[in-house]
Amino acid sequence: MNSTPRSNRLHIALFGRRNTGKSSLINALTGQEIAVVSDVPGTTTDPVYKSMEVVPLGPVIFIDTPGIDDEGMLGRLRVEKTREVLRKTDIAVLVITEEGGWGNREEWLAGQFKQQRIPFVMVVNKSDISKNCDFLKGISVIEGIPVVKMSAKTGKGVEDLIRRLIDLKKEDHASLHLVDGLVEPGDLVILVTPIDSGAPKGRIILPQQQVLRDILDKGAAGLMVRETQLKHVLDKLTRPPDVVITDSQIFDKVKTLLPPHIPLTSFSIIYARNKGHLGLFYRAVKQIQGLKDGDNILVAEGCTHHRKEDDIGTVKIPALLRKKTGKKLNFHHVSGGFFKEDLSPYSMIIHCGGCMLNKREMEYRQFFSEHRGVPMINYGIILAYLHGMLDRALEPFKDELNQ
To answer: How much is the pTM?
Structure first.
């Protein structure tokens, strides 16, 4: 329960051909036998995710991928799974051997890393039986990329690889904290958190936990209340709060209780800003006015959960959007790690806050949709729009909307 969520962990993925020792390398990095290894090529048939605490990298997820050279019908499916891992990779490790050499597949992987701006390191594995690394000379696509010569079997080179990963982490992980620019040290923040029947008993849902923790890390005070307590708490305070953060589903209730001079936003909008590009989400919401009868809307969520009778994605948002537009709209739903590649049937995508997705995956979904000409809107932004308070909910971030 107290472990770092997967979405907040550094995603380190190992890529390469079959039998280059990717699984053995993960075992060597973690000091545990967490991946099945074999001399038989193709032992890893699906991406394997392992959450670890690795000193001094901190909380990470190692992803062991199937060989990029897998063959046959099943092999092609496995390779496709490997390609999908690229979408969520923070740092890539390209594993090769002197025996396997360098070919088109390695050239393609290195090109993808550069195209998608994924920092990566080259590992020449099985150095205990290798003679030299001359086969890498003259390959332009890897110029300037760190190369580590190591042996997963003996452990030689592991410390060097970890140092390289630390350097790449410093370059890649200067990401925005959830409440940066919204909360300052000494601020008083009210978090309006309805008791969600879908949350595990005795706990609050992940976005609320993470925002509260970030407020405390900022040196501010967080006061968590239910919507039914908000008026009473405001009356009791000797000074107004510096900002109020609410669950998007109760925007309408909170705005009637909160004086207009007090800044107001939502957990989901904070996630839209932290995980993706807030300006793109904002511009996408303007496309709602162009929806027509019969248009298809894709509702995408980053996790799977039990659907309630008043579920936000399958019930509340569709009902509010139909009412707002007066159009007969068709809604389709996907959840979890799956995200449709063919977006041609859709006029719009409405996406959850993405608290279970890492930033790379959320940005991939957003920019992929943009390139396909399909606007994507975040739950919090569309709910603010549907409740007639979009400008107020985005006021704290107005300088970022045109970026």
So the answer is: 0.81
